[in-house]
Design brief:
Layout (H helix, E strand, L loop, with lengths): L1 H15 L3 H25 L12 H28 L3
Helix pairs in contact: 1-2, 1-3, 2-3
Length: about 90
């Protein structure tokens, strides 16, 4: 949950145009952090799915694809908002 909140906060920084390059880098690092933390959760701490079943690396791969697609979409929307001055 906290990682997703951090990602949206970074998207807001990108959309407001604050520290352009740094906001983009922070957004990328948070996205990578979400993926890395889930990997560690699954491989080291016996992470589970939302159904309570043990998660596998295949689950992590699907999670990674979903997070990357969602993050890319969110980043594009934030950059568009910044370029149009919507924020």
């Amino acid at each position: 949950m906290w990682g997703n909140i951090a990602l949206f906060a970074c998207a807001a920084l990108v959309a407001y145009g604050t520290a352009q390059g740094w906001a983009d880098l922070l957004f990328l690092l948070v996205t990578g952090g979400l993926i890395a933390v889930r990997y560690v959760d699954i491989t080291r701490f016996s992470g589970e799915t939302s159904d309570g079943e043990p998660a596998t690396v295949a689950h992590w791969r699907r999670y990674t694809v979903k997070v990357m697609l969602a993050s890319a979409t969110l980043w594009i929307m934030a950059r568009l908002a910044a370029s149009r001055g919507w924020m």
